[in-house]
Amino acid sequence: MRDVAFVGQGMSKFGDREDASGRELAFEAFEETMKDVDATRDDIDSMVTAFGVDETNHSAQPSSEVVTYLGLNPKADFRTEAACASGSAAVRSGYMTIASGLADVVLVMGVEKLNEFPTSHTTEVFGKAGDTIWEYPYGTTFPGYYAMMATAHMSKYGTTREQLSEVAVKNHKYATMNKYAHMQKEITLKDAVSANPVAHPLNLYDCSLITDGAASVLLASEEKAKEMTDTPVWITGLGGGTSSSTQFKRSDNTSIRGARVAAEKAYEMSSKSPEDIDVATVHDCFTIAEIIAYEDLGFCEKGKGGELVEEGETYADGKFPVNLDGGLKAKGHPIGATGVSMSVEIAKQLGGEAGDRQADGAEIGLTHNVGGNGQHVFVHIYERG
Amino acid sequence: MRDVAFVGQGMSKFGDREDASGRELAFEAFEETMKDVDATRDDIDSMVTAFGVDETNHSAQPSSEVVTYLGLNPKADFRTEAACASGSAAVRSGYMTIASGLADVVLVMGVEKLNEFPTSHTTEVFGKAGDTIWEYPYGTTFPGYYAMMATAHMSKYGTTREQLSEVAVKNHKYATMNKYAHMQKEITLKDAVSANPVAHPLNLYDCSLITDGAASVLLASEEKAKEMTDTPVWITGLGGGTSSSTQFKRSDNTSIRGARVAAEKAYEMSSKSPEDIDVATVHDCFTIAEIIAYEDLGFCEKGKGGELVEEGETYADGKFPVNLDGGLKAKGHPIGATGVSMSVEIAKQLGGEAGDRQADGAEIGLTHNVGGNGQHVFVHIYERG
């Protein structure tokens, strides 16, 4: 088992990118990724590409268009899909490609075009990531799933409307410090609390964005990493987990089982505990999801996630800085790109390259990426070289 | 890098399976896979699941429904997609999961429901696996892509109408010896030559089937494999390659570049050459594809693929037995399941369990799986333990 490092990372501008196709967004991310690395296309052995859904990309084999547009034929590639965790499945696959000895240098790319239809139709398409026999046909979509989780969490732990909104306020604030983020607008707690309802108790500012974008990382074996960069970031822990495809079968809607399992594995593999984490990007597709993530990752006791953000502990100067890139909430959530962009942010943070939103002295980082309403979850832990 | 073995394999009945959902087909394959293995669900650490297309499966996260239905939550899983090579991408990912040390025992599953629409619509959906900016919008679908390859091959090498049909005759014959195969009907050369046209020069019997099905293999590390079976089959070579997303950009339509690259890598990794291969399953989505596969794999000189089948060299008693399970042509081609079912056949052949269609004394096998019209290709080499 060989050590695997990030040697480069980059992303396209996230947003409503009607100016660019998926392959063009990928090219933007690729250029950013390669610009500070002592490597060229020729050094790349293999590729893994994440896309979330066929329909919004108008394609049944979207990754092949990216490989060709980047000029990487005939190198090996395949697509990973795990709904909203597709990007972290790609990072995991990139790690495995190198650690297994099949390649020395792997480009991991995540891409998604979403602003192709009215939001109502896109939400309908996403709904098919829920169980398509037992839930989707009855009208369930993701704002509804997470609204049920929010209701359960508020009922069981006393989580408040204001605590949900605190997540939005924090993530909008940090997005303004990230030039790649979709939203560039600070909001007040009053704005966030009083926004129009989407699925009670979630309102507009509780929901992440319909975003186009791409993000990529270049991974390398220990030997190659040392040739390519002076500032490698090592992947030291990987955990994966799954939850029931149906939400109705879950005994508890205040936590995601697959996330707890994935976190436990990642901590165990890297010999780390929650207290060791200096900076994290977590899956805030809805504000309640970030609060549940704090708890599933062990950043606080169960039920205390609302208080954690309210007390400022997940800001850059808090105990567990979370989503300093703006998160899915304000950076945006282009499905296939999301998990990869989480890794991009952690690599920047551990490299001390995060500018105004830098978590001081961050040496150990974590990404937490949830597919659907918990069907697939990946947690990765990274350490500065 | 740890050695990785097949310890179990199975498949559902392939066919027009309106009696079963995707998850139910997966369960059939899973039961077959586990029945001769000294292992239970508890021994499985992780899973990889191949599905080809969202639309025919009516889902945007189809693998999650399989994980849950098999009772494997909360074990890690993700989906691989590489169009028609999705299943081989899953086998490759299963290998990587174990060889990288992330798991000891991995279930690799491939599933596809296709008989959900009229064939014309399914063909349209598949067309989106071609380049969706530069070719698909102008009406290209897969019979057309492969018809162009057939025309080029006939023009350049003198490949005949009869030689194309010989592939169909062979594969239909062997499908009748495989109870899991979709087609159970021998055909004559006259039948095959005179069938109705689909895309000139390809006719009905040159085309593979619209099939529902699932196939799975259980992979294990060396240590675990020895506990679980007396007849492991080892994965000793893996190669991946890609070709341009557009066919018009390729300089030669008589060969698939990604396939040549994938084969070269697999032979190199396993220290084998074409002459060493005792039995193979290759990607005969259309009859011309099998002829091109012979050549890309080095089973004959370039341009001589038609003669190879005409001379009987790819029958069970020939020099290179190919597609003794009936191939995509007659066993059927449920996209996500196809590559996995190729591996299932090789495992059976190397285990001496292929009954009437057994290639005598087969010790070394190969699978060749093409996504789209060559965008993704995987070649794997297997050896009897």
UniProtKB/TrEMBL annotation, chains A, B:
Every Thiolase C-terminal domain range: 242-384
Any Pfam family matching the protein: Thiolase_C_1
Record's signal peptide: none
GO biological process: isoprenoid biosynthetic process
Listed name of the protein: Acetyl-CoA acetyltransferase
GO MF entry, a single one: acyltransferase activity, transferring groups other than amino-acyl groups
Keyword Transport carried by entry: no
Entry superkingdom: Archaea
Domain Thiolase N-terminal: from-to ranges: 5-223
Keywords annotated in UniProt: Isoprene biosynthesis
